[in-house]
Structure formats: structure tokens, C-alpha cells
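Per reviewer request, we include the raw input and output of the structure prediction for the construct analysed in the revised manuscript.
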Amino acid sequence: MPEFRKIISKDNSLIKLTSLIQKSSKARKEEGLFVLEGFRICMDAAENGVSFDTLILSESVYEKMSDDILFLSKNSENGAVVSDELFKKISDTASPQGIIAVCPIPEISTKLNACGRYVALENISDPANLGAIARTAESLGINGLIITGDSCDIYSPKSLRASMGTLLRMPVFLCDDILSFIKENSLRGFACVAQDRADILFGEFKFSNGDVVIIGNEANGLKQSTKENAYKTITIPMCGNVESLNAASAASIAMWELMK
């Protein structure tokens, strides 16, 4: 268990660093660090092999020092205690639980299973959608997420909270171009598009190992080059005047069909 040092100043270097990497994707990449906040997600991360660089506790949490907090402390290289008021200043949540873990960003997965089934996300911009898609993917047994670099940061606090830790457990593959990555790994990419522009329909096609469903940006969908060069375009048949679903809903249906 690390020795917990008391920090009282908002100008302390650890306090400044924690606040910065909470807010800035650029800072997270430059520092190689990200933040987990809250008991449940910190515990889940520790139980799944994520090591902490520093565990920051509010005074009220530190004074109680439950067995679970002791377990988390043993998973950390360093420890710090701050006042409850100072903790609120570095927190990213409306109701802070008094626990933050500053963690090293792990190496991105490189071991893609050519017989697996994947969901690929092109320029997904909403962390809530990213987290929701990741949770559904894990629950359905998807083998991993393929995400373009222009999508939202998988290590943002909002992405991690929305995924409830899934983004720390599932294999995640980052790439510049989805189709190039898919083809390099001998997979088949199915571009999800509006229903009047598709080659095939979900529900009328049987997927195989090595297939990938590709979901596009919330507002603009997939890039034209992705749609034109995918193995097939595919759509969700819909009734009434509904032309499209939001990204998380569409991805859920697509992944369900992929794994049937």
C-alpha cells in the first residue's frame, strides 16, 4: 500500500495534471494517462488488470478506508489525499464519490482474430454512443471494436462512464482508415447505410466469421468512399416514415444480427 501524501493546494502539480487530463484528449495522449472516477469503475478496472499510477482520495473516503478502498490502494503506485472541497474541483461528476485513479494508457490491441466478428465505428463523435455501443458489443460477444482516430476519445471520462468499464476490457483497435484496416486483416466489411441505398437487408443475410459491421457518424453517416468500397452495403428494414436510427440503436441491431 502506498504512502498517502496530503495535498492542500489547488496549484499542486498532481491536481493540475488530473484536472487537465480529465478535460483534454490532447493532454491524455501527451501524458499517456487517463482518469477513472468513481468506486465501481475503479474496482472493475483493478479486477481486470488495470494498474493505477496514483489513487486520489477525498479526506472523508480516506478516513473510512474500507477493505475495498484498501484493495484499490494496493493496486496503485502512489497515493494522495485531498480535502472534500478540493476533490470537487478536480471531479468530472456532479456527485463525486471521493475516489479518482490516474492510470497509464495501455498499449492498443494488435492481436485481431481473423475468425472473429467485429463492429467498426467511423468518426463516432458522441462519447455516450461510443460507451453504449461498447457495452452492447461486450454483452453480445463481439470480439472487439475497430475505431477510427477521428472518433471521440475512448479514454475520455464520458466514454469510460458510458461504457461502464467495457472499453477497458474489450479489445480496441485504432486505425486511420477502416476499410484499409479491415482488408489488411482479411475481413469483410459491411457498411450500414440508409435503407434505400443498400445491397442487402439485415435479417435476410447470414454473417460468417471474419465479418465486420461498420457504423458511421451520428449526423453524416459513413464516408462515401467507405460505402463505395465496402464488401457490401446493408440496411435495417424499417416501417413508417422513419428513415434512420441513431448510431447506438443501429449498432445494437446490427451487432445482434452479426452474432446470430
